[in-house]
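Lecture 7 notes: from sequence to structure.
We start with the chain below.
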Amino acid sequence: MIALGRLIYRQGILANGKPVRAHVMGDIEVLGTQFTCLNCHGRSGMGGGEGKTFTLAINPAALFAPRDSMYLERSAYDDESLEACIRRGETPEGTALAPEMPTYELPDREMTALIAYLKTLSGRFSPGLTDGEIHFATVVGDGIDPADRMAMLAVMNSFFNDKNARTRNEGKRSRRGPFYQTYRLKAYRKWVLHVWKLHGPPDTWAAQMENYLNRQPVFALIGGMVRGGWQPIHTFCENREIPCLLPNTDRPGGIGTDDFYTLYFSEGLRLEARVIATDLVRQKKSVRVLQVYAAGSKGKFGAQSFANAIKGNSLISVKDWQLKPAEEFSPEKLSARIRESPPDTLILWLPTQAITRVPFAELKKMIKGQVYLSSSLLDDISPLFVTHSGTQVKLAHPFILPKNRQAVFNRITPWLQSRKIPLQRQRILGQTYYACMMLGKGLMHIKRHFYRDYLMDALDHGNAKAIFSINYPRLSYGPGQRYLAKGAFILKKNDDGKTSATWIVPHL
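Predicted structure tokens for the same chain:
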């Protein structure tokens, strides 16, 4: 019964698989799949704003209690009056609801299931709370560069300390404040950060995280970094319905049809691969591609993503050169590979130390197409390879343009310096600061309603904070959007010596 109610609420589909029939604005016939309960009231049922329309909460605490001494007063719903509301659009007193509220043609079985599901929405606070604390965790895996780990944790610890210091009087206010500010003061909690250290193979991480969670439940995960892909953490958080906010990863998990709890900055190397594929397809000519990457590296993820992106495209053929685990890249080996089976285009999914050894001048004589590089793999020095390597090189760059980067990073430089945080690892610093800021804004929005689903609903409408991104130029938020950066630049040195930047939102 609950499963059927969930299907109706989230997808607008009846038990027989057909869409619910509905009417909006009085007499306009629509499908329930177009006007689902989820679209307006959120996964949490706590409602929210959309343009000039504000949607009320429909969780049990809201529906089955009277609205007294506030706008839109009404008596409490019961099952019978709630049926009338859903079918005819009226309150328990018979007052018509706003015309934007659809009315739904639901058979009795589906109506019973929907009401049963509504009673499960946002009823009890999520785990990770005490009367005075709210607990969070970040994940750190084996083999992480110590400088990266220190940069991330320094920002988190400083942000949490600031938050707790600025609100040190809120505990007293929450007990003695005026009654009309109860909704705000009761929200006060001290932020507590836990570091979940993961060891060993990824298939053991879920059990390790379960042990951490059993010892101390947390409300959400924030940031984090592991050497491999993020999929094991992604799967764990989706299964346990724990928000996982903006991890530092270039190998994010794949978003399933019902995945909700994991929010990424971008698709990482998968985004770069799709942008490169789109750039090649736009050229509308046959291309033989050679991809170079090391076994077990980040680059392999990028190469696999590119192969998936161009699957079925008859104009693009791909060969891979996977360096063996103990094999070092060398210009001589690359030249031999090219002579053996000449490609038109190279994609070098290689880190900085390998790219610095690439003979770009020689490559220009050996291949007629482009040489694509990954900005994520080259990090801070990636633009140098465009400006110093000639017109043949193209860089997939999902970050803020190099000419603007320092000015944007200067937004948080005073904060970092005042807390004696070294300014190295700028990408990690910027991403972690933004993740902490978004967590704070999300909690501010949900006030005292500590439901994990409500936090994620609130973050779905975070566009107003996109301007504060330190690393990414065009973040966009919306329900169901779990990768915030949708596109990337292709940077290229022109014949006149200037660098051009073409923004691509991939369609592959």
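Points to note: The two ends are 39 Å apart (CA to CA). The mean pLDDT is 91.
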